[in-house]
Sequence to fold (564 residues):
Amino acid sequence: MKRARRPAQPHAEGHRVWIIPDAYLPVLTAEDEAKRAAGRGYWSHESLCVINTGPKRASLTLTFYFEDRAPVKNIRVTVGAERTRHIRFDKPEELGGFEVPAGVPYALRVESDVPVVVQHSRLDTTQPNCASLSVMAHPIR
Amino acid sequence: MKRARRPAQPHAEGHRVWIIPDAYLPVLTAEDEAKRAAGRGYWSHESLCVINTGPKRASLTLTFYFEDRAPVKNIRVTVGAERTRHIRFDKPEELGGFEVPAGVPYALRVESDVPVVVQHSRLDTTQPNCASLSVMAHPIR
Amino acid sequence: MKRARRPAQPHAEGHRVWIIPDAYLPVLTAEDEAKRAAGRGYWSHESLCVINTGPKRASLTLTFYFEDRAPVKNIRVTVGAERTRHIRFDKPEELGGFEVPAGVPYALRVESDVPVVVQHSRLDTTQPNCASLSVMAHPIR
Amino acid sequence: MKRARRPAQPHAEGHRVWIIPDAYLPVLTAEDEAKRAAGRGYWSHESLCVINTGPKRASLTLTFYFEDRAPVKNIRVTVGAERTRHIRFDKPEELGGFEVPAGVPYALRVESDVPVVVQHSRLDTTQPNCASLSVMAHPIR
Fold:
C-alpha cells in the first residue's frame, strides 16, 4: 500500500547559537550618504539573515564583541513563524536603537529560543563599485 | 595480497534538507535588461547549484520564505543521476513557472528525496561591475 | 608539575571526500587572453585549494560532473606531506592534461587517500574588474 | 513556576583547531603602496578573524603551509577574553614579526588553547576596484 504523503508541518530547523567572527560595517562615503538620504541605490552595509522555518516566533539575542572593549549584550530581534528577516546593521531601528559602530572590527553571537539558520553578508561600496561577501554563521548548538 | 580496487559505484552523497537564509534577486538595470534580451553578457541573478552523485534522479521540493507573507511551497525541480544542475532563479522556466520576486529579501529551503549537496551563489551587476558571493547551504539532515 | 609541551607531530587532518556543487570556469575575454599570453595580471580562473597537514603525500582523485553528460572520472593530483596546493583549473597541465570546459556549469567531487581540507575559489574578470567568491567544500566523510 | 533566566556567564564556544586551505596575500600595486604609506583607503590584505567568547585569554599558534617548502610553525597571537581580533596578515607586527610572503599560495592552520571561532577574509585591490571573499575556517576538533 502506498503510504500517504504527510502534509508538511512547519517545524523549527537549525541551531540555537551561531557565531560570526568577521563583522565590519564600512564607513559611508559622501556618495554613499547621498544614496542613503535618497533611499535609492547601494551603500555599504551588513545584513544578518535569519530563517525561522518553525511554527512559533523566534526571539533572538545578539551580542556584539569588539577588539578593545566589553561586549554589548542583549540586543533583541524577532523573526516570525515561517518567515525570514534580513536585518540591516546600518539601521539602528532594526536593532532596537543600537548603533553598530562603523569602521571598527567586531564579531557577533546570535542566540535564539528556537532553532534557526543564520547567514551574514556584507556589501562594501567604499570604492566606486561594490564588493560583497557572505558566510553561513558557525553553528555552536 | 594486494586487494583489488573496487570499481567506484555511484552512490548518493550529502543531505536531504538544506537551508539558505540570504537570498535576494537584484532588480535588473536597463543595461541588464538589454543583455538579457540579447542573451549575452552578465546580468544579476542567483543560482541554486545542486549535485547528485547517486544512481537515481533526485526530486527536489523548494520552499521560498519571505519577510512579510506566507512561504511559497512545493516548487519542484529534478537533478539527474550523476549530474549537476545550476538552477537560475531569474528564469521561471527552470522553476516550473514560479517567478521569484526581485528586490525582495527571501530565504530558501531545499528538500530532496535522495542525498544531494547544495550551494547558493549570487551575481550582482547593479553597479557597472559585478559583485559575487556564494555559500554552501546549511545541511539540516 | 608543569607538563612538557609535546612536539607537534604532523598528522593528517580533515576528510577524505569533499564536494563542490558550483563550479564554473568563465570564458576568457580578449583582454584575459592577452594577459594569459603575457603571463601577467589577472584573468578568470578557478582554484581548488588543498591542504595536507599529514606526514605522507596525498593522492587525490577528482570527478567532474556536468548538466547534460556523463561525469569525467579519475583525474589525479597529488599534494605533498605538510604542503598546500592551489590547483588552477585553467591549466590542463595541473590536471594531468584534462581541459576543464569553459562557460559550462559543472560540479566537483574530490576523494583523497588521506584526510585533507578542500576549498574552492573563483576569480571572474569577464567584466573590467574582478569578482571573487570562495567556499569551503562540503565534507562527506 | 517560571524558572528564572540565568545570567549569561561567558564560556568559550567553538573549536580548538581550524584550517584554511586558500590563503593568498596579493602583491601591492603602486597605488596600494601609496595608500598604505598614507594609512588611508583600501589596499589588498587578508584578515584572520577570531572570536573568543570565553572568560580567559586565548593563546593561538598559527602554522603557515606552502606549496614548495616546509611549513612555518609556532607563530603566536592572543585574543582576550570576550574579545574579537581581526589580525591583518599584511602587518608583521600583528604576527610577532613574521612577514607573510605576498604573491604566493599558502594555507593556514590555527590551534588555540581554548575553543574559538575562526573566519578568513581577503580583500584584493589589484585591479582598480576591490574584490572580496570570506570563508568560515574548517573546524577539526
Observations:
- Chain A touches chain C through one residue (CB under 8 Å).
